[in-house]
Amino acid sequence: MLDTGALSPEVKKLFAQISKQAEEFNKVFKKIEYASSEFEDDRTNMTNELNQIRDDISKSITKLETFANETIEEFREKTETTHTLFKDLDKIDSLKNELFDLRDDIKTQSIDLSNSLIEFNSKADRVLDGTVNQIKTKLNNAIDEEVTKIEGRVVRRLVAFEKNQKIFERRILGIDASVKGEVKKLGGEIDFVYNNITEIKSDLATIMSSFMDKITHFESEVPRIAKLLDNAIAKMNDKLGKGGFSSGSSGGGGGGLLDDDDLDGPIHDGEVDDSMFDFDGAPYGEPDTSSSKEKKLTDRELMEYIKEEIDLIEAKSETDSKKNTLSMILSIAALVGVMTLIVIFLIGN
Amino acid sequence: MADQRLERILEKVKPKTFFEDLAEYGYLMQYLREFMWEKFENDDEFRTRMFKIMYEHSKYPVQELNYYYLFHFNNVLEQFFKKVDHNA
User: Fold this and answer.
1) A112-153, pLDDT tens digit by residue?
2) What are the φ and ψ backbone dihedral angles of A181, each rounded to 5 degrees?
3) Is residue B59 a contact partner of residue B26, using CB atoms and an 8 Å limit?
């Protein structure tokens, strides 16, 4: 309320009411302003969104247009391809029908061919059996002939080999007898040499005993000779003290005294002969072996000859067997070739 | 200068005037009608000053003041309604 008393209470009441209404109006106006601002904001947002939607719609329309054009183009291409595919399918159908016809033809031809093949096989089997039987008989005959020939050859070779074997056996027996005689002779000679060696051993023992006796004698004589030498040296010294004595060593012996040469000289008593120990020359009256050496040489030659003969026979037999086997193989191969030619000729007919 | 100084002093001191005494006892409007009616009618500034004194100091209701405020209020309302109509 107004504090003044100058205004009538009705006016005051009116002003108070108006002020209240003004406040309410202000509140409402503020609300309306707020609502209007919100509405404005919403309107701007809506307009923005509308513009955006408009742009999007325009873009999508263009996209749709392009997509529609592309799809139409694709559809057109696909329809063309389907047209071509249908044409190809028609062609394939016609080809399939032709192929079925051809298959039926081939079936009939194959049945005919199989029948003719069966007939041909049976005929060929018969002909082949006949030819094989003929070839078998021919081969058996040829093999029998060859076998009889080879057996004859082998029998002849065996007879010759037996003859040679007998000759060689006889020769070997002769050689054996001669070798036995030689062995007996060699035994006698070995006994003789053994006896001689025992005699030589006994002689050596006697010589060694005499030699040892002489060595003991010299050992007993050495002090005595040393004394004599001392005396002679003393005498020589005395003479030299008296004057005028030439050296005895240069003159080759002075006054019958013993020299060093006498001591170093060889001993002549019981001298041993070196030829006693020489066994190479057969010095004790061994029998002359020149004839036996000739015999030995002939035996060796004979043995070698026998060996050579045996080797030659073996080589011959081997070559003969090889020849026989080769001839057999060649004849079999020729027969097989003839058979194959016959078979080829038959198949060709 | 002197008038301005005097006004400032008067604003500070605020001495009670003859018009205010008359307004306090409810005789200002009668006084103005009998002695200063021409000035009150023609001088707008004087008239507003007198109405202000009456509003501030009168203990009794003054019919002219009511009319004056109602007239102004009417004008204000008219302008308001015009503006509202214009905005609507």
Assistant:
1) 999 999 999 999 999 999 999 999 999 999 999 999 999 999
2) -60, -45
3) yes
Tell me which residue in A5, A11, A18 faces B60 most closely, judged by beta carbons: A5
Integer CA distances (angstroms), A81 to A73, A76, A86, A214, B29, in order: 12, 9, 8, 146, 111
pLDDT, tens digit (0-9, with 9 covering 90-100), for B20-43: 999 999 899 999 999 999 999 999
- Residues in chain A, pLDDT under 50: 244-296
Amino acid, res. A172: I
Is the Cβ of A8 closer than 8 Å to some Cβ of chain B? yes
For B58, nearest residue in chain A (alpha carbons): A6
C-beta atoms of B66 and A8 within 8 A: yes
Q: Give the ipTM.
A: 0.81
Q: Is A22 an interface residue toward B (CB < 8 Å)?
A: no
B interface with A, Cβ–Cβ below 8 Å: 23, 54-63, 65-66, 69-70, 73
Residue A274 phi/psi, 5° resolution? -65, -25
